Every structure is written in structure tokens, then in C-alpha cells.
From TrEMBL:
Record-given protein name: Tr-type G domain-containing protein
CDD domains with a match to the protein in the record: EFG_III (cd16262), EFG_mtEFG1_IV (cd01434), mtEFG1_II_like (cd04091)
Residue ranges constituting the Elongation factor EFG domain according to the UniProt record: 448-510
Pfam families: EFG_C, EFG_III, EFG_IV, GTP_EFTU_D2
GO-annotated biological processes: mitochondrial translational elongation
Naturally occurring in which organism (per UniProt): Aegilops tauschii subsp. strangulata
Protein family: Belongs to the TRAFAC class translation factor GTPase superfamily. Classic translation factor GTPase family. EF-G/EF-2 subfamily.
Lineage: Eukaryota, Viridiplantae, Streptophyta, Embryophyta, Tracheophyta
Molecular functions (GO terms): GTP binding; GTPase activity; translation elongation factor activity
Any single Gene Ontology cellular-component annotation: mitochondrion
Length: 510
């Protein structure tokens, strides 16, 4: 933690034995050995430090005192004068340094049989600040998110943050941390993020998974309410102020996955799960890719998304197939090609007749749009009321090129001539004529595939520089910048989307 995270930290405990030989802990502050007995480690047995660990324990205690002394003047004075430091003095120094956010105490433990839980909870009481010792900042939405310091007392207006949502037996359970004021059962509270007023139907204090009904709760407490429709991170007030505890701006997701249910029958449960997770977690996003039709989930990392996929399976009994989002390639043409197509169909009654002539060509690189349609017909070879249908037909044809079925861009279509029939010509006939004309001449225009190119910034420990740059080069990335930030290297590169493409290699970039 000190070397990598640059934290001013030190252990306040050392383990007795490691891995399968782990027996208990030695408290470096009190100099006592702690062992955890019973089926769930619920019985804490205190004893003297084992004789074979005396020297090691004293060295670690001295290291703890040294690290805390660097950020606490009172302890530093006693340490430099070689005065014996009592457990109470050390505990008080650790608390002062932790509350001032200058020191981080490190605890040991094992999840197996719950070893080390009680000392950790005692550490929360001993070293973490009570609500009045912390300055909580709210953002005033009436004044462009101007910072406001909250008093943290019951006397002020109600300000509470919904920090966790849970689906319970009685509907959505919303956990609230009250920063200021009082909340009472039956009160009306206002969701600052949505502007909705809500009545508090039931107020409970949580003890693990057990609930205790209460009538009111004060600043500094954590309570849960039922029947409140909100999202995680929403702020509630009594309506007299418009404060939010967190900024309205949420960090953009950094990773995406394509996900869809294996069974078509489970689509309703699948959608329900995704909607609920979006309400619970503002950094979890769900979207539909309009080109590929894939459902895309986005979040803050691979593990973040894996947990939600597992929760869909466990909580909603929906097996989901996960994969990489399809890369949205584009197609384009490299040379001019002529078209002359007659669409003629007779099947009793009114038929279909439409002829279009002209050429397609690539747009110049400085063109503003990605599709242009020019009507260069002189005279009335095609009545003017059919021209919009022809343009619509060409636009529709450009939605799917014949190389890999992706949209065609950077193309100009010029209509130079055509023919119509007094009876059989219609908008549909000319639209179909345009679609088939495009397909007829597209191959002659020598189409190519365009791949998306992303600017990527990578930050990693310097010792992995060779491995990372080799991997970028293997993926056809182009490194455009290299910088040092402390022990880390920052590489800026351009990476294309063709890594996963099992199609013809792209001819150019956009």
C-alpha cells in the first residue's frame, strides 16, 4: 500500500501463522494475542503474545509508531524522547491521524470462519470519525452546484442520501444516510433529482437482514424506507432546500459487453433485471445498438459487468449469453461507377415501371456530409414527384453495403436520366429501381471497408512497458505518445476495430 498507492499506512495487527496455519492475530496497540473460537469465530479469546513472536511483534509495533509519528506531532515528540508509549496514547494518535486523513490503519483477517471481524468493527469505533467530526459538503442546485457545508445536527433542514437499493419481500427497500435534520414516518420528502414529493410509509432500522420499525431518525443515522421509487445516489430533502449530496454528473463507463437472454421466453425478466440494476447503480448503463440490434451493457470494468450478469442468472433465473459488442464498421467506394437500371413488373392490373440512370462517386475528403444526392435531370424524363422516392431508395440501399452488410458512407449519387410510364410508374417502383441500381453498380465502384479508430490512453507500471507496447503493436495499434507519471508509464495510441474482424482487411480508416 505504501509503495504502490502512496498511502501513509501501517499494520495495527500481525497474523499468528499464515494460510491453513492461520490461528489468530496479535494486536500491536494493546500487545495482546486474539484467537477466534466457535463455529463462526464469534468467541474472541485474549491471551499474551506467543514467546516465539515477541521480537517480530515489537519490531512491527515500532514501525507502526514511526509511521504514525510522521503525521502526528504529539506522538512524534514522545517517540523522539524515547518515552514509553502506552496503548491509550498510541490509540489516540492513530485516531487523530485517521480522522485528519493522514494515516490508514491496516487490519488483518480471514473470511473463512470469520476470523478478525470483531477487532475490525472495534477499529471502526476507535478510529473512524463520528458524524460531527466530519465536514459534509452538499451541492446547492439553485446556485450551480455551489458547495454548502452541512451542520450534521438534527436542527437543520432534512438532507438524506439514498446510497443503496435492495429488492425485498415488500418491494424496493431504500437505504438512507441522514446528513442533517430529522426524518419521521408519515412525513413528505422531496427527491431533489426528480422533483417528486413522496410520503414515508414505513421507516425501519436495519440489523443485518432483520428490521426494526421506528418512528423517526436523526442526522448521522442510517435507516431504510419502503415504497420510495428512486435511484441510487438520489438526495431527499424536506423541500425547504435544493441540495444534492453528490454531483449530478456520473463518470462515463469504460467497458461494454453485448448481452442477450439464451431463451426468448425470458425477455421480460431480463428487461426487468436491467432496469432495476440501472436504478441501483448510476454507473451501469444499458443501451440498444441501432445497427447490430445488440443489447449493450456498460460499466466501470470487467468485474463490474460480470457481477451483474451473474446476478441476472442468480436473482432472475435468466441465463444470458455474453460477448464483445459487434464493431460498427463502415463501407465506402473508391471510384466512379455508372448505373442504368429498369425496374419493370407486370402482374395483372397496375404494374411497376421505373428507370434510373446516373453514376455514383466518392465524396471529397473535405465534404461536410457523408451522403449526397444530386438530381441532374433536364426536362421531365422522371416526374419531379418521384425524385424524393428515388433519393429514399438510394439512402435505404446505403444502409447495408454488399461487402459485410454495414452502412455505406462518403458517397455522392447523381441522377442524370430515367424513364417513367403514365400508368405503371409509382413511388414504390422508383424506390425499388434506385435500390437495385445501387446494388448493380456498387461492386464496379471498388468498395472498401472502413474501420473505427479510437484514441486510447493506457496507464500501467513501467516494468510492463515492453509487454504492453508489444501487445499494442500485435493488435495493429499505432503509438503516438509516451510519458512518465511517477512509477507509471502513460502511452497514447490509435487502435483500430479490425482486431476481431474475420472479413477482408479494411482498405482505409475514418
Amino acid at each position: 500500500a505504501r509503495a504502490k498507492l502512496r498511502h501513509q499506512s501501517a499494520a495495527v495487527q500481525v497474523p499468528i501463522g499464515l494460510e491453513e496455519e492461520f490461528e489468530g492475530l496479535v494486536d500491536l496497540v494493546e500487545l495482546k494475542a486474539l484467537k477466534f473460537e466457535g463455529g463462526s469465530g464469534q468467541e474472541v479469546v485474549t491471551s499474551d503474545v506467543p514467546s516465539n513472536m515477541q521480537d517480530f511483534v515489537m519490531d512491527k509495533r515500532r514501525e507502526l509508531i514511526e509511521v504514525v509519528s510522521e503525521v502526528d506531532d504529539q506522538l512524534a515528540e514522545a517517540f523522539l524522547n524515547d518515552e514509553p508509549i502506552t496503548a491509550n496514547e498510541l490509540k489516540a494518535a492513530i485516531r487523530r491521524a485517521t480522522v485528519a486523513r493522514k494515516f490508514i490503519p491496516v487490519y488483518m483477517g480471514s473470511a473463512f470462519k470469520n476470523k478478525g471481524v470483531q477487532p475490525l468493527l472495534n477499529g471502526v469505533l476507535d478510529y473512524l470519525p463520528c458524524p460531527l467530526e466530519v465536514e459534509n459538503i452538499a451541492l446547492d442546485q439553485n446556485k450551480s452546484e455551489e458547495k454548502v457545508s452541512l451542520s450534521g445536527t438534527p436542527a437543520g433542514p432534512l438532507v438524506a442520501l439514498a446510497f443503496k437499493l435492495e429488492e425485498g419481500r415488500f418491494g424496493q427497500l431504500t437505504y438512507l444516510r441522514i446528513y442533517e435534520g430529522v426524518i419521521r414516518k408519515g412525513d413528505f420528502i422531496q427527491n431533489v433529482n426528480t422533483g417528486k414529493k413522496i410520503k414515508v410509509p414505513r421507516l425501519v432500522r436495519m440489523h443485518s437482514n432483520e428490521m426494526e420499525d421506528i418512528q423517526e431518525a436523526h442526522a448521522g443515522q442510517i435507516v431504510a424506507v419502503f415504497g420510495v421509487d428512486c435511484s441510487s445516489g438520489d438526495t431527499f430533502t424536506d423541500g425547504s432546500v435544493k441540495y444534492t449530496m453528490t454531483s449530478m454528473h456520473v463518470a462515463e463507463p469504460v467497458m461494454s459487453l453485448a448481452v442477450n437472454p439464451i431463451s426468448k421466453d425470458s425477455g421480460g425478466q431480463f428487461s426487468k433485471a436491467l432496469n432495476r440494476f440501472q436504478r441501483e447503480d448510476p454507473t451501469f448503463r444499458v443501451g440498444l445498438d441501432p445497427e447490430s440490434g445488440q443489447t449493450i451493457i456498460s460499466g466501470m470494468g470487467e468485474l463490474h459487468l460480470d457481477i451483474y450478469v451473474e446476478r441476472i442468472r442468480r436473482e432472475y433465473k435468466v441465463d444470458a449469453k455474453v460477448g464483445k459488442p459487434r464493431v460498427n464498421f463502415r463501407e465506402s467506394i473508391t471510384q466512379r461507377a455508372e448505373f442504368d437500371y429498369l425496374h419493370k413488373k407486370q402482374s395483372g392490373g397496375q404494374g411497376q415501371y421505373g428507370r434510373v440512370c446516373g453514376y455514383i462517386e466518392p465524396l471529397p475528403s473535405d465534404a461536410e456530409g457523408k451522403f449526397e444526392f444530386d438530381n441532374m435531370i433536364i426536362g421531365q424524363a422522371i416526374p419531379s414527384n418521384f425524385i424524393p422516392a428515388i433519393e429514399k431508395g438510394f439512402k435505404e440501399a446505403c444502409n447495408s453495403g454488399s461487402l459485410i452488410g454495414h452502412p455505406v458512407e462518403n458517397i455522392r449519387i447523381t441522377l442524370t436520366d430515367g424513364a417513367s410510364h403514365q400508368v405503371d410508374s409509382s413511388e414504390l417502383a422508383f424506390k425499388l429501381a434506385a435500390i437495385y441500381a445501387f446494388r448493380q453498380c456498387y461492386t464496379a465502384a471498388k468498395p472498401v471497408i472502413l474501420e473505427p479508430v479510437m484514441k486510447v490512453e493506457l496507464k500501467f507500471p513501467t516494468e510492463f512497458q515492453g509487454t504492453v507496447t508489444g501487445d499494442i503493436n500485435k493488435r495493429k495499434g499505432i503509438i503516438v505518445g509516451n510519458d512518465q507519471e511517477g512509477d507509471d508509464t502513460v502511452v497514447v495510441c490509435h487502435v483500430g476495430g479490425s482486431t476481431n474482424l474475420h472479413e477482408p482487411q479494411p482498405g482505409q480508416h475514418f
